[in-house]
Please model this.
Amino acid sequence: MGAAPEHAIEVTNVSKTFRLPHERRDSLKEHFLHPFTRTVYERQVALTGVSFAVRRHEFFGVIGPNGSGKSTLLKILAGIYRQDSGSVDVRGRLSPFIELGVGFNTELTARDNVRINATLLGLSKRQLDERFDAIVAFSELERFIDRKLKNFSSGMLLRLAYSIAIQAEFDILLLDEVLAVGDQSFQEKCFATFDSMRAAGKTIVIVTHDLAAVTRFCDRVLLLRDGSVEAVGEVRATVARYRAKHGDTDEIAVAARA
Model:
């Protein structure tokens, strides 16, 4: 019998381009004179020739300036976007925490959304019944569980979504800016789950601007810039390379706070 594959994720030469509609009308008069003007599409290159691999049981960080393609990459890993070229091989059950509120129905209560989303992530009715109280307790939203989500703040939505994601049966967890919303106490709760997931041998891929968290938790880091891989490897060296070019920006100053 062969040994289990070393990598949980392999990305090979992946590229992704978006077509953005762009229509130019210089005046109100032109709008009425030419109401059927054809829309012009502008190409936006999000990723170009991206290749890397994530080892099994690894805590893998993805960093880079805004617009570097980090979130697009994570959505391709999750199957939300399809790459234009290249290949993506994900070996294991995924639990994606990609965008705040995706999959939620704001006209339904938090209770209903927990049940719907947990089911979509693969929990059986029995598993959901067993874990429902733990999901709600972790989110600290017991008093609001029967309120509609349209009345929730972004921080409340984040707590609820993350609480569901970590209760799913997964081998690989994808996290996009999970630390960007929410108070310090909830961030510390997230950090505690990172430790427990590492102990359980899970594979974690996290996109974040919080360089302190990257340094604390990640085994290796991918640095993206302008949609291309600038570096991938040891954490401190890769973070230092990032800081060398962006250390004086507000974005990094906030993200690197102690």
